Known about the structure:
Elements: H1 3-38, H2 41-62
Bound molecules: zinc ion (ZN).
Amino acid sequence: MDKDVVAAAFAYKKRRRGVAVVAAxxxxxxxxxxxxxxxxxxIGMIFALLVVIGFVLFMWKDWRCxxxxxxxxxxxxxxxxxxxxxxxxx
Length: 90
Ligand SMILES: [Zn+2]
């Protein structure tokens, strides 16, 4: 894959990860309490749990190096891929 394409793909993933984090937090804190109010607290808790599970699955599937496809650690914020050393961002 072209270097610019890899960097662009990674920048897009990073943005998507930011959106996913915000959406998951909102859904857990605002969504789950709203669901809990409308139904029962227990259902709100289940909803929150499902959001967390969905978020973890999404990150597990999505947070990968665009060049080699291997998983990047949760703490990975940029720089070189720890597996194939492709430069993902400046
Ligand atoms: Zn890689």
